[in-house]
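call fold(seq) -> C-alpha cells
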Amino acid sequence: MAELSISKERLNYTIDLLVTMAVEEISAFTGKDSKEVLVDFLLSKTGKALYDDTTKLWWTGPSYLAEMYLEEVTAKQEILPCTCESMKKQGKENPPA
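ret:
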C-alpha cells in the first residue's frame, strides 16, 4: 500500500483540530476552564507526543487523546508525595523512605 503524503501545514492543522476537540471533552469531563486545560494538555507528555508526527498519534480520535491525557494526569497524582501539612493532618511526621 502506498504511503499517503500530507503537507506539514495540513498535518499541523489536523493536530490543532484534534487538540481543540480533546480539550473540549476534557474540560466538560473535569469542569475545568478550557483555557487552563489547553495549557496543561500542551505541556503534557500526551500533547508533546501528539505534535511528534513520528508517533502517528494524530491518527487517533479526540476521545482517545482525552482518555490518554486523563490517565497521564491521574498517574501523576498517584505518585506525588504528600505535603508536610497533609502528613501532619494524618499524624505522620516522617514520610517512609
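The two ends are 54 Å apart (CA to CA).
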